[in-house]
Amino acid sequence: MRLNKLLPHPLPRIYLISSGEENADMDSRLMEQLRLLPRSIACMVQIREKQLDTQQLLKLALKARNTDLPEGTLLLVNKRIDVALEASLDGVHLPENTLKTADVHQNAPNLIAGFSVHSHESLRMAEASGADYLLYGPVFDTPSKRKYGPPQGLEKLAQLCRATTLPVFALGGITPDNALLCMDQGAYGIAALSIFGNTARLVETLEQFDQIISS
User: Residue 47 gets which letter from DSSP?
Assistant: First the structure.
């Protein structure tokens, strides 16, 4: 596994993405998720709230940063390098369409930089842009991604994992029932949004994933 920065610990292998439905005037589901994280399970957590304005997003990011999180948990924000720096987050995640203009390491060399990729071409661009990890998917069918076409599938996941030394997180329709299939294809970890939204079962779900990934 190659990283552009020396981290105190390896990247966590479970990647939680926020709902995209945070309301600045209501109690935050993300904050509830963060409070529920088991102390023994470090996670990557991406704040992906595109609907919030800068001040709202910064307020949420600062609240997340000031939460007592399990050791090794890393906080990232979608696209907003400025917010990541202002809130002292650990990194930023960028969509595939920003690959050609990515300048994370030039402007913020200490931030972890992740990229979404959907092809080998975008993989090479992410590597050239200094990516520290990749999100690849959707691997399996998931309602939120159907408008973009069919899922990539396990074979394409395996091909991408073989083509890079970067950690690859499998995304899209990931459950405890199919997570091991992704790991068997070379995925470093798993990423998900919807399955982590059920806070009543969040601890159980995280423990299931942790057991599968660690086995």
Answer: E
